[in-house]
């Protein structure tokens, strides 16, 4: 038995002013065949990682392709995408004959000229391997679950958790089903229900937690092989942007259709109920300062690099300084130039620094202050579940009672190492301001005594009606009151 695996992945915010080039992939995940580390998977590489670990025991040969992944940003350069795609497809051709293919993709990647990158990859891969080769795909739930992908794959599985702590577990599930299909033990059929809605669905909150637990309970029973919820990625302006429910059943399309419809209708009934309460900047900061518990974790989802934002907005930080917050730590602020200046100034230096507020109007105004350099660290990383994420060179600065972590590789707040790398112990802070939508909850949730979500003036608005969509298919909630949800595949 012969399997092939590869990854091309990023999450594209089509409204972001930050173009995505090959250099963005080189900065994050750029691994040629055989170069993937043995320690942990990287972004979207879990299918290859688990397939390598299990090859000997399961009795198959794994042919490894390239793995490319970049932090979320704007639309991908067309030549860059085609270069990576063609490299992987050439590797696929060279690996023939194959019994199965495992793709680790994101699902919300957009390149100039390609609204559906993953659909393009799968369509071309299917033409190469033919109809009998089993193609399995792992996607992020913040994906666009397009019909082209469904038509060209045999098995599609999405992570269930948000924060995405189950990436490796779902890759194990995908490999199980691909191997069982090749061996003739199951005959997967897929059904998709389009809920016609745009929203956010943190699985750390009760309503979505219960929905995900019910999905888990349905799998492995009565012919149901897998159940996934595609949350959608609200900042990708593509025609098939929408929340969708996917069910994979063993040979019984009617059963898959029925369950997808049932769960889809339940998902529709949850409209407007799955997001946390958001506070204004001044109110959120005041609540954090006045709180009698610590640490209070304040989230800035609108400046989340994981959604394509720059992560250099200064508005909440400015309010913390204005309200004289004490024992507060903020991170990350992406500003490679400010990091370099801190290294130039040296540890313990006090000097005038302008930082943040660089990329555009939604970054806010730069902060100009006399700062103390409290820590410097090279080549830092933070953990997220089983993976590690590069932060690059980091500097910690202090302005009064507020400490700020400056980073050179743009990413969101994920692990406690974000602060510990530069000598800030998160559990000892009164306030922790993190730039993240919900992934921060995996590491910061367990230490938080209180969590506040703040709606800043950064680019990722939680009010989806404000987003200037031009391509998304209408009607769709909440842009339209009346919609027509239903089975589409």
TrEMBL record:
Annotated Microcystin LR degradation protein MlrC N-terminal domain residues: 2-287
Question: What's noted on cofactor binding?
Answer: Binds 1 zinc ion per subunit.
- Please indicate which superkingdom the organism of origin belongs to: Bacteria
Q: Name one GO molecular function term.
A: metallopeptidase activity
Answer whether the UniProt record assigns the keyword Hydrolase to this protein.
yes
Q: Which parts of the sequence belong to the Microcystin LR degradation protein MlrC C-terminal domain?
A: 298-471
What's a GO biological-process term for it?
A: proteolysis
Q: Which InterPro entries match?
A: MlrC, MlrC_C, MlrC_N
Q: List the keywords (alphabetical).
A: Hydrolase, Metal-binding, Metalloprotease, Protease
Q: Which cofactor does it need?
A: Zn(2+)
Q: Does the keyword Cytoplasm apply?
A: no
Stated family:
Belongs to the peptidase M81 family.
Q: What does this protein do?
A: Involved in peptidolytic degradation of cyclic heptapeptide hepatotoxin microcystin (MC).
What is this protein's record name? Microcystinase C
């Amino acid at each position: 038995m012969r399997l092939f695996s590869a990854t091309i992945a990023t999450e594209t915010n089509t409204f972001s002013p930050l173009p995505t080039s090959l250099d963005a992939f080189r900065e994050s995940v750029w691994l040629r065949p055989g170069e993937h580390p043995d320690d942990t998977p990287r972004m979207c590489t879990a299918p290859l990682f688990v397939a390598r670990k299990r090859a000997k025991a399961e009795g198959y040969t794994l042919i490894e392709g390239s793995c490319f992944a970049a932090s979320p940003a704007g639309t991908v350069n067309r030549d860059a995408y085609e270069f990576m795609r063609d490299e992987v497809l050439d590797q696929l051709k060279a690996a023939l004959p194959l019994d199965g293919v495992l793709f680790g993709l994101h699902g919300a990647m957009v390149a100039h000229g390609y609204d559906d990158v993953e659909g393009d990859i799968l369509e071309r891969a299917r033409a190469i391997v033919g109809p009998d080769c089993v193609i399995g795909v792992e996607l992020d739930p913040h994906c666009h679950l397009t019909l082209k992908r469904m038509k060209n794959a045999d098995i599609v599985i999405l992570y269930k958790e948000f924060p995405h702590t189950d990436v490796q577990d779902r890759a194990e599930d995908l490999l199980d089903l691909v191997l069982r299909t090749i061996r003739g033990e199951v005959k997967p059929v897929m059904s998709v229900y389009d809920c016609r809605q745009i929203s956010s669905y943190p699985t750390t909150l009760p309503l979505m937690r219960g929905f995900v637990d019910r999905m888990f309970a349905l799998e492995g029973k009565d012919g149901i092989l897998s159940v996934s919820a595609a949350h959608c990625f609200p900042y990708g302006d593509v025609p098939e942007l929408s929340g969708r429910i996917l069910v994979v059943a063993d040979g019984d399309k009617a059963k898959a259709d029925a369950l997808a419809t049932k769960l889809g209708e339940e998902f529709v009934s949850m409209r407007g109920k799955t997001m946390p309460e958001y506070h204004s900047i001044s109110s959120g900061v005041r609540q954090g300062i006045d709180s009698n518990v610590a640490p209070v974790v304040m989230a800035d989802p609108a400046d989340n690099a994981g959604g394509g934002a720059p992560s250099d907005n200064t508005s909440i930080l400015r309010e913390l300084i204005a309200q004289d917050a004490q024992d507060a730590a903020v991170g990350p602020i992406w500003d490679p130039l400010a990091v370099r200046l801190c290294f130039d100034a040296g540890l313990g230096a006090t000097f005038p620094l302008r930082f943040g507020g660089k990329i555009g109007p939604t970054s806010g105004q730069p902060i100009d202050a006399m700062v103390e350099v409290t820590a410097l660290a090279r080549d830092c990383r933070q953990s997220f579940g089983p993976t590690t994420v590069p932060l690059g060179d980091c500097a910690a600065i202090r302005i009064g009672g507020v400490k700020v972590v400056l980073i050179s590789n743009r990413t969101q707040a994920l692990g406690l190492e974000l602060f510990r790398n530069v000598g800030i112990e998160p559990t000892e802070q009164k306030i922790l301001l993190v730039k993240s939508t919900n992934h921060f909850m995996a590491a910061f949730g367990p230490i938080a005594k209180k969590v506040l979500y703040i709606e800043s003036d950064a680019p990722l608005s939680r009010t989806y009606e404000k987003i200037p969509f031009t391509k998304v298919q209408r009607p769709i909630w909440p842009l339209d009151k009346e919609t027509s949800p239903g089975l589409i595949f």
